[in-house]
Amino acid sequence: MIIVIGATGFIGMYTVEKLLSENRKVLATGRNKNLGRVLENMGADFIELDITNKSDFDKLPKENVEGIILLAGLLPANAKVDIDVDENADDYINVNVIGTINVLEYCRKNNINKIISTSSYADVFNSWKKGVALKEDEPRNFKYTGDHAVYVISKNTANDVMEYYNQQHGMQCAVFRLPPVYGVGPHSTIYVNGKKYKSGIQTFIENAKEGKEIEIWGDPHISRDIIYVKDVAEAFYLALQSDKAKGLYNMTSGTQLDLEEQVKAIIEVFGNKENESKIVYRPDKPNNTPSFLFDMSKAERDFSFVPKFTSYKDIMIDYKKELELGRFDKLISEREKN
């Protein structure tokens, strides 16, 4: 059995689907009963679980668990707190650090050695450069300001605790360092410093469908290394089967995706053929995310993971297909109630 903790989230749904497609028995956990029923209909077992509550772990099995995929956590995109007015540092520490320790202790006490969690690519934010593929041994170099700062600190701390359990208790903990993960899910709106905004990809797709102009702010050739959610799910599956998967792994496409080319791909895939969107270049408008690229050789070496979706057009084609199938409509509607 594989336990997916935080399975009612975006990545969790796809990961459960992937594991079930490989005929693995899956126990999914989360805090949303409605999405729990969706997971049960997919073929998984479901248990409500809050990782900050130690007693909740008594609900989980104590034997025949092959490994844990830990996806539960607090992210800035879901946090409604304006840190200029209030402060939620304790929430990040409680969920992302103490919650991780609770998972590790459940695993240690029940002889479950394999745990895979996720982390932030912003731990090396100040080292991002165009054309420079950062490896896992790149020293941490992140911003101590902004709504992502304590989130990054909490994930770094959780990573360090997982490595402690590797060395002190002989466990096999691995961490996937994720950039933005693309795929059909609750991404039409996100929170930025407590304020709700329509996401960039949602804006681009809507404008392309309606034949409206699409603005590119700043440098149109900023290149970013993203990953498609189906590749993430595949990587989890492969890493669980490997005795080498341990420590930090970059989990991206390993490919520089040019911003202008991304917009062109969205227009081509989602666009109104009779009234095609025009691109408007706005160098006067700031684009605050610099170029970044990550090296993927360690994941290929340790568990033979090679991303399948490295073309942004291919990502958008599959994205559109999933939207039309509507398989994750319940995930979107449940998440966007909040």
Topology overview:
Layout: E1 2-5, H1 10-21, E2 26-30, H2 33-42, E3 45-48, E4 67-70, H3 89-109, E5 114-120, E6 133-134, H4 149-169, E7 172-178, E8 181-182, E9 189-192, E10 195-198, H5 200-210, E11 214-217, E12 223-224, E13 227-228, H6 229-240, E14 247-250, E15 257-258, H7 259-270, E16 279-282, E17 293-294, H8 297-303, H9 312-325, H10 329-335
Parallel strand pairs: 1-2, 1-4, 2-3, 4-5, 5-7, 6-17, 7-14, 8-13, 11-16
Antiparallel strand pairs: 9-10, 12-15
Helix pairs in contact: 1-6, 3-4, 5-7, 7-9
Low-confidence stretches: none
Strand element count: 17
Determine the structural class based on helices, strands and strand pairing. Answer: alpha/beta
Structural domains: how many: 1
Radius of gyration: 20 Å
Which strand order do you get reading across the main beta sheet? 3-2-1-4-5-7-14
Count of helices? 10
What general outline do the C-alpha atoms trace? globular
The helix/strand order is EHEHEEHEEHEEEEHEEEHEEHEEHHH
**How helix-rich are the residues, as a percent range?**
25-40%
The CATH architecture can be given as 3-Layer(aba) Sandwich
CATH H-level homologous superfamily name: NAD(P)-binding Rossmann-like Domain
CATH fold description: Rossmann fold
Largest sheet: 7 strands, parallel
The chain-level mean pLDDT equals 92
What percent strand? 15-25%
End-to-end gap: 32 Å
Provide the CATH top-level class. Answer: Alpha Beta
